[in-house]
Amino acid sequence: MSECVKNRREARLPKQARYAVLLSHNFYSRGESFLSTVAAPQRFTALVISPLHIMDKNTLIAVLMGGPGSERKVSLASGAAVVNALQEMGYRAEAVDVEGPDFTLPEGTGLCFNVIHGTFGEDGTLQALLEKKGMPYTGAGVNSSRVAFDKNLAKDKFLAAEVPTPAAEIVDVTNGVRLPKMPVPFVVKPPREGSSVGVHIVLKEEDAMKAMEDAARYGNDILVEQYIAGKELTVGVLDGEALPIVHIAPRSGFYDMSNKYPWMSGGDGSDYYCPADLDEETTRAVQRAAVAAHKALGIEVYSRVDVLLDAQNRPYVLEANTIPGMTETSLLPKAAAAKGIPFGDLCLRIADISVKLRS
Ligand SMILES: Nc1ncnc2c1ncn2[C@@H]1O[C@H](COP(=O)(O)OP(=O)(O)O)[C@@H](O)[C@H]1O
Ligand SMILES: [Mg+2]
Question: Which of 146, 192, 304, 349 is catalytic?
């Protein structure tokens, strides 16, 4: 016996119903939300049935990868994985190695899937170029990309929206490098780099000046943040909802370049746990903080938010990455997989949401 219930919100299910089959476009992420809107959710199993994707199989997807920045190698790996996954699902995808603003898209491109990490691809520059061309693209838009990429601008947004984040000070070194007012321990960061480039954890006063001098090589507005000792977490946010949390445990030191990409630098690497082994309350607090950060920056489609968790289980948002790594073993895909979203589906889902937003 079955009955059709056509509700958008607060579905009222028949009293004797035992199973709810949810047909929804947002089939992956909304199942749990849907159940939370019905009375006595424990009575129901959400069997969520996939609708057709919006993406047309004839649309040519140009996967933009590489870029001129320091994360070029990682981006090429992300790009190759995305092209492969889309093609395996029967979509037309083509790799485009973008080295700078002068790039040519293949004839007939209908969507640009951007996986250019860091400078140019992640900071709003490429997004602005694509908008000028009238070309739909995946991920965050011009403004949200620019703000999310600049840790100083993002810090202001976090503070204004009361997103938990480490206390900070911006040190202007235009007239010479100087120390922050904040006492050690602190973390020194050039605000517009990624992959831990120029990031220094300063535990002892005597190391402070060297760290400031190094960060000053990248620009005059250095971000100095209160040091948070604790667990390193990262949370994927897809279409406004948090994915399962990834816990990153670097095998030595902190989560720097060598522990992020040991295959590139020969470092010790890190161990990853997803879902992170945290109690329910902490999990919810961390996910809430991640979604709040994503929203405070106005990010469209998806992001991956880096969070530190202190010994009292308080989350602190560090940053939101708008072009996170997209190899099959990258953190966002790991988080999606833990929610039952295979890599190919994740790519398609990102394309779908972006197309819906931009065409
Ligand atoms: N306030 C902080 N306290 C402790 N560790 C930090 C802090 N800020 C950054 N780190 C460490 O440095 C890494 C990189 O910092 P993050 O702000 O995420 O910049 P990015 O990843 O863009 O280089 C973090 O993953 C973390 O290991
Ligand atoms: Mg980070």
Answer: 304
Closest by CA position to 210, among listed 202, 218, 221? 202
Among 226, 244, 269, the domain boundary falls at: 226
Least confident of 28-42, 213-227, 279-293: 28-42
pLDDT tier, 28 (very low <50, low <70, confident <90, very high otherwise): very low
In the set 139, 141, 325, 344, the catalytic residue is 325
**319 and 235 fall within a common domain:** yes
Q: Based on the residue annotation, tell me whether 321 is a catalytic residue of this protein.
A: yes
Does residue 223 contact residue 168 with C-beta atoms inside 8 Å? yes
pLDDT (0 to 100) of residue 213: 97
Is 288 part of any domain? Answer: yes
pTM of the model: 0.86
> How many structural domains does the chain have?
4
CA-229 nearest atom, ligand 1: 4
Q: Is the dihedral of CA 163, 300, 339, 326 positive or negative?
A: negative
**Ligand 2 centre distance from Cα of residue 38 (Å):** 37
Residue 111 three-state SS: strand
Active-site annotation holds for 304: yes
Atom number of ligand 1 nearest to Cα 321: 22
Considering the domain architecture, whether residues 83 and 128 belong to the same structural domain is answered as: yes
**DSSP-derived 3-state class of residue 48:** strand
Model pLDDT for residues 128-176, shown as the tens digit of each residue:
999 999 999 999 999 999 999 999 999 999 999 999 999 999 999 999 9
